[in-house]
Amino acid sequence: MLKLQSLSKTYYPDKAYPVKALDNINLEFLSDEFISIVGESGSGKSTLLNILGGLDKLDQGEMIVDGTVYSNDTKYNLTDYRREAVGFIFQEFNLISHMTVHENIKLALSTFKMTEEEKDKLVDKAVEDVGLSYRVDNKANELSGGQKQRVAIARALVKKPKVILADEPTGALDSETSAEILQLFKNLARKGRLIIIVTHDEKVAQASNRCIRLKDGHVVSDKLRENPILISHEEVDHSIVIERSFDLMAVFALSFHRVKEKRWRYILISLGISVGIGGFILALALGNGVENFLEKSSSQIIDGRKITLMKEDEKIDNSLYFEVKKTGLAEIIQPEFNLQARLDQGKSTEYFGIKTLHKEKYQNIYATPILKEGSLPKKGKKGIALTEAIAQKFIKEGQAVNNLIGQELSFKIMSPDTLTHYPSRWDSQKLVITGIIRQPFMGEDFAYIPYEDHILYTKRSRFLGKNAPVPTNVFHVYLKDKKNVAEFYQKFKDSYEVITPDNVLKNMTKVFSQFQVAILIVSFLILFISSVMAGILFFISVLERQKEIGLFKALGGNSRDIRWIFFSEAIIIGFMASLMGVVVSGIVQLSTSSLIVSKYGFDLLDIDVLHITIGVVFGVVITAFSALLPANRATRLDPIKLLKQE
Ligand code: ADP
Ligand code: MG
To answer: In angstroms, rounded to a whole number, what is the distance separating the alpha carbons of residues 170 and 187?
Structure first.
């Protein structure tokens, strides 16, 4: 069933001094033998066992298992061989201490395509065979040495391999427990398994039905004993070969245990990632906020039909009025003057600008400031409406701005003449505050008065007569239809500086997108640093999980399975971190949202499900990516060395 032909193995610990661990070994084993391999330390016993177990490669000769030839010439697949043919039992048990007996044994089945129930049934049977049913739910670290070795034997048995290999299985046990374990092996041998045990223990050698002695890599004796083990043929437990598949659940469970165990370091790294993801989500949410703002602006704040015509430092004369009229596109044409106001209050003086409202008959057609309280002033009634921020300056502490409505205050108003530089004066006006205007989201704060009053105060400040024209270099034109903006622009763009609603919006959203880009850059920086740190953690994890990796390899896990050990860890962390990131962004939104909405009437940070999904996926992908190098490194490690580590 298992045959070794001229098998040799040489190690090169130092290029100049090769060590011939095995030299021209020829052996044949039958399927129902209980074999002990003895010999002095360094004679090559472990090397032989490792080659038989597929943990190490032979370099000369061949190994033939049930007709399949494994040699250095054929590119054979050791992982499949390990998975299907071999059950390995280690001197140091190599159990995963924080997992239960049942979980430890089931791990051996994680590369098999079976249902959970089928696996559980096999595990229960194996536990019964080693007499540990009463301990099945205990954690491995709660067991005695003998019990641990029973679990290790059950783990080797559970997949019903053709060969069971054990390297000094009683080496770490006291003599009484050794006897029990030996009895267990004898029972297994009776069921028709090929059992090969490397041992120092004379009792084990006595109990076997064939004893092979090695010396310096040679077989020096091969003896059959008189006490052959009686196989009862009804009892024979046949091997099974089951298709390869990979139990992600088992690996995730493994990683989950680990993350729980090392939670503090993972929580810390997750915090880093979560801030990055949170920022990323907020940047996306800000994009929505900009849209909300544009929607709001185009309906209320910015008039889609308003065009400003300007000349730099040059008076625009009245002929413009007729020029615009002639196009037939405009509804209102009005000059714009700069009006400044001042309120003296005891020692302090507050300054602010005044803008003009539309003539009353146009107030329903074109955008007017949004009232929060009170009403807009009517022409000739000496009224004024203030924004919240301006009103705030005029009230006593603790008072509500609404209290100002109806109050008459004495303002000083001036219109500086920046074109002709004629003198102007502060003109005193007693004005009644008629309303409070909602704070504009961006740009300067203004108070508003009727168009007619605006002109009147301008003339008074500039010493101009009632019918005298006021020189200006700024005209506002309100079109009948916003579809005509482009046409109007084309007509005047050569002679004037023309500002269209689009220009205004563009300028306003520029700030937003700069802000958005800034958040994105910072988030990506944080994410980059955190994922590099996560990568370092995964490298540490590779070091700390060497035993697990070695075990997985010995159990027949292939490179993909090993990679998943780390990807699963990374996915758990990435998911945890991203969820924390969602919470971070949620907190930021909740704490700012009500403030912004109440003040400006739209939501600046508008997180939706899509952003959360993108954020979480992004976080998981980035973290998984950081596990790429460590995971690849793990696949290249040698299982024998990994398992030797303590
Ligand atoms: P045993 O198990 O009988 O004590 P081994 O099979 O472990 O012996 O070792 C046989 C010989 O091969 C020894 O001389 C040992 O030093 C050498 N050897 C074993 N493994 C390695 C290795 N990975 N690298 C170099 N030399 C090794
Ligand atoms: Mg050894």
So the answer is: 16
